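Tutorial, part two.
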Amino acid sequence: MKVWFGDLTMFSLFIGRRAVSVRRSWVLLFVLGCLFAGPVQAALGPLANLPSVVESVDESYRRLLSEAPVLRSFEDAAPVFRTMLYLEAVLGKNGRMSERAHAPAAKKGIPLHRYLLWHDDLLGLLSEAGSSGKTILSGSDAVRTYAAVLVAAEAFELPPELLLCLFLQESRLRSQAVSPTGAEGVGQLTKIGIHQVEQLLERSDARSDRLFRYEEKLRDLYSDPGNRILFHAIFPDFRIPRIERINGAERSGVSEQLLRRVFLLLSHDAPDLLADRVKLRQLCQRLRQGKSIAPRYGKVVKAYRIAAEETYGQRTGYTFNPETNVAYSALLFRYYVRYPWKVGERRLKLPRPVRRGLAVLAYNQGPGTVLRILGRLSSGNLQGLETVRPREWLDLFSQQILPELMSRGSGPRSTQLYLHFKAVMECAAASGDNAGA
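Running the prediction step on this input gives:
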């Protein structure tokens, strides 16, 4: 009996401990639920909202198709424009910048993607295959550049449509574009331009702060779980970039790492091409310089593009990285917008549209060219610059500035500069409003 009573006592104690243990488990589960309810809901929320968000984007795209029927002929461009519509919803409201709307077009709610439709050839680049078998303009490049422009316009206080139109004219948004003079990437950065931006960043903490805000907003955009889910739902082939601190803009050369990746890709697709590695290196160097190679080397072009994207395109700090290139290009363009233009000792008091127009010229040819243009103008023309209204700016340039330059023997170059300037400014005003206002 004594034994039985002892056993009963131990059994009661065991039941008590289990009860306490169960109670503690429920308390622990309750605490954990409170702690993780927010993150779990945040992670699962996008999945619950996914159908409605995608339907909303599709509805916006259907409206765009009705307004721009030309898009129906370019089915490959559909995911690109659908993603851009989503970006406009994420980064702004109805096409407006989320905090500031610096351009009249943005203030009136004109979506930025409309400016892309002004460039008919852009749709072709998104759909037509090049020698590598891939489209000339990567859809991921177009989307990443578009997002970077939206963020840069806010961070650096620039008109988004003018910045986008500048990049359209410079590179057609191609991240690996290389000019005959060696300018690289979306904004066609040069060695001189990169050095100038680095000096600007060293001189001013305010510029560095703007760059930091730009990086931070892009990082938030691409690291948000909901955005990542929706990006892949809308544009399955979109390659989400890794946003890190931009500590420079290194020119993207033909490195040993890139060559090893090219060789590895060709070992699977075209092993016969590996027999002459010196020739392969030369072909990659030609591609790096923006030169074409014989059609029979189409697989080399494809391997080079993949390797360059993996080596340079996905990592910040290189000119072939769209986010890095847009940041440095926007900083340089902002510097020219605020440049203290002078003729002799006289500092010109220029209205905003004229300063932006001169910034387009300076970005393409350097401030020295703009100063020479201003120095050659008569006092009457200078006074016209200081009082010109936005819609008269292009006419003033074409009717007075260009003839003045042509008469002084710089015809072909002046014509090319004018056509570049005209294309950018007319693109920015394609909505019927003047983006330079």
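The mean pLDDT is 78. In part three we will examine how such features are distributed along the chain.
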